[in-house]
Amino acid sequence: MAESAKPPQGMDDVDAVTRAVLTASRLLVAISARSLAAVEDRVTLPQFRLLVVLSTHGSAKLVVLAERLGVKPSTAMRMVDRLIAADLADRQINPDNRRETVLQLTPEGRRLVEDVTARRRQEIASIVARLKPGPRAALIDALTAFNEAGGEPDAMVGDSGIHPLGWADVPSQQE
Questions:
Q1: What's the average pLDDT block by block, 10 residues per block, for the chain (175 residues)?
Q2: Less CB within 10 Å around the terminal CB: N or C of the chain?
């Protein structure tokens, strides 16, 4: 954090923290964009987010998937149709209710999510490695507190051991 962005000693300066987090978010968005650049000819950012949701939560009905993405079912259906055409997702009959279909990743879709996530992880790790141990430990504490305040689960969850982008269900404003 630049010296001018540091709050005065003993003060909790919300504006200074907000500026620092906003700056960090620009860096993280840039890293995200670079990690997606290798697959931008295959998927858009919203389509990738859908793949991540399927990767994180597993098979889902269209209505559930749309809800998790915060979009209308018709929007989710258009994205799903494009991903199916690209062999990144597919529809299957729900084994629990044969009148329903569920959407899931194909092996190629799973590989795409894993590859993009690995590129992102590598770039973030290279930045973190340049931090000295003290600031690195402080960053863990600060980001953990920030994520908890925002209701974001830890990135290391789920059967796969990783929540690829941290896109969990977004809590509603009414909660």
A1: 52 84 93 91 92 91 92 94 96 85 95 94 96 94 90 60 43 35
A2: C
pLDDT of residue 173: 35
**Phi, psi (deg, nearest 5) at residue 157:** -135, 170
The CATH number that domain 16-149 falls under is 1.10.10.10
Task: Classify residue 51 as exposed, middle or buried by CB count within 10 Å of its CB (0-12, 13-18, 19+).
Answer: buried
Helix-then-strand count for the chain, H and E: 6, 2
**Where do the structural domains in the chain lie, given as residue ranges?**
16-149
**Is residue 43 a contact partner of residue 51, using CB atoms and an 8 Å limit?**
yes
Residue 19: name the closest of 33, 39, 5 by CA.
5
Per-residue tokens: 134? 């003290």
Picking from 148, 171, 139, 166, the residue whose alpha carbon sits closest to that of residue 20 is 139
CA distance 49 to 32: 12
Q: How far apart are CA 154 and CA 147, in angstroms?
A: 8
Q: What is the DSSP letter of 105?
A: E
